[in-house]
Amino acid sequence: MIFSGWEDSGLGNVVKLKHIDGSFSIYGHNSHLLVKGVQKVQQGQIIAKMGNTGNSTGPHVHFETYTPEGKIVNPMTYLPPLVGGKIPQPRTIAFTRRRTESGCEKETIMAGETVHFWINICRENGKLFYFGQSKQNPPTSIWLPVLIVGVNQYRANNGNTSFYITPNRLEMRQNGRRLFSERLRLFGVGAQRGQGFASGSRFPAPINRQSTGMLQRNGD
After folding, report:
1. How far apart, in whole angstroms, are the C-alpha atoms of residue 161 and residue 76?
2. 154-204 residue pLDDT tens
3. 3-state secondary structure of 187
4. What is the Cα 26 distance to its own chain's centre?
C-alpha cells in the first residue's frame, strides 16, 4: 500500500495500493478507511467503506488504475466480468494440456526450463498463453492466458496464484506472497527479435537429462 488517508485533491478519504506487478490503484470518497500507513493487504481484504467524502455528490467509490509507468488505464483491463452484479471469488482457471515436443502447438515466444519445470510462452489465434509442466510429474501441466507486464516479462494468473516469467527467472506468488523463485535457462526468446519462433520450432524434448543435470549442479 502506498497511502491511506485524506486527499485534498477532492478524493476525500482515499486508499492507494501498489500491486505486485508494479501497477497501482486508487479508491476514493470512502467513509471509513480500514487500512493504515504502508500496511500490506491481501486479495479479497476489505480496505475501506464506501462513502461521500471529498468532492462527491453521492456515495460511491472513485476507482482508478495505473500502469507501473504511471499511465492511467481502463480498470476493466484488470477486473474479471461481474457475476450477479458482484466481482467473483478467485477461482482456478488452469487446465491440463498435452505437451508437444516443441511445447507450443503454434508460435513460440519464449521457451526454457528451471530445475523443476519446463515453461513456454505461446501465441495462438492472436493471444498469449503460459504453458508450464512439472519435470517430476510430466502429466501435470497448466495452460493459462498471459498478460504482458514489461519487455519480455509476462504474468499468468490462476485464481489467487500468479506466475511471473522473465528471461532469467520463473516466480510463483499467492496472494502477493512469493512461494518460490527459480532461475530460468532459455532455449530462445522470439520476442527479443520482434517476432516469435516459426511454427514447428523444435526445442529439447520433455526429458533432457543433460541440461537438467547442469541446472542442478549450478543451483538456483
Report:
1. 20
2. 999 887 778 999 999 999 887 777 878 899 998 865 533 333 333 333 333
3. strand
4. 19
CATH class of 3-77: mainly beta
Put the strands of the sheet holding 153-158 in their side by side order: 177-183, 169-174, 161-166, 153-158, 141-150, 127-134, 117-124, 107-113, 185-189
Single pTM value for the model: 0.45
Q: What is the pLDDT of residues 3-18, one digit of tens each?
A: 899 999 899 999 999 8
CA distance 79 to 77: 6
Cell numbers found for residue 96: 491440463
Task: Give me Rg for the CA atoms of the chain.
Answer: 21
- Bridge partners, 153 (sequence order): 150
Domains of the chain by residue range: 3-77, 107-218
- Structure-block grid coordinates of residue 69: 509507468
